[in-house]
Write a structure and sequence with these properties.
The protein has 142 residues and is mostly helical. It is built from seven helices and no strands. The longest helix has 19 residues.
Length: 142
């Protein structure tokens, strides 16, 4: 996993995590696994998995996305950014930023990650095809 429950607690108060666990036991662990799976899917074609060291950027992205989803599961406040009294506005903004960063990582190499170097592994390219159906002699008749 890319982050732990302790990392998520940096973004969500314990009372919200406790309320979430009360409503649905084990859901936080499942969310952490789900977010880690999504990150794996996003970076699997560009980086060697599993990562030997989890960069702080990915740890933060995973924690923010998980925190946002925990809050979204127990409150409807996440759906509104317009309210001045929205205590989760900062988390909403961090979530959008985390999603953008993950997309950027997916599309280009990031510091601290071991890229696959796909282009360097290809020494030659061979193409195979079926035997020709029409010979040059047959085509010359047209």
């Amino acid at each position: 996993m890319y982050c732990s429950i302790a990392d998520v607690k940096d973004y969500v108060l314990d009372k919200y995590l406790d309320a979430m666990e009360e409503q649905n036991s084990g859901v936080l662990d499942r969310m952490l696994e789900s977010v880690s799976g999504e990150i794996d899917e996003a970076i699997q074609f560009r980086y060697n998995l599993p990562l030997s060291v989890i960069p702080q950027q990915l740890k933060r992205i995973a924690a923010v996305i998980t925190a946002y989803r925990v809050i979204g599961a127990i409150t409807s406040v996440v759906s509104s950014e317009s309210s001045v009294e929205n205590e989760f506005l900062y988390l909403q903004q961090m979530y959008k930023s985390a999603e953008k960063e993950l997309n950027d990582i997916k599309n280009k190499c990031a510091d601290g990650l071991d890229p696959l170097h796909l282009d360097e592994d290809i020494e030659k390219l061979e193409v195979y095809s079926c035997a020709r159906t029409f010979t040059d002699q047959m085509l010359s008749m047209f």
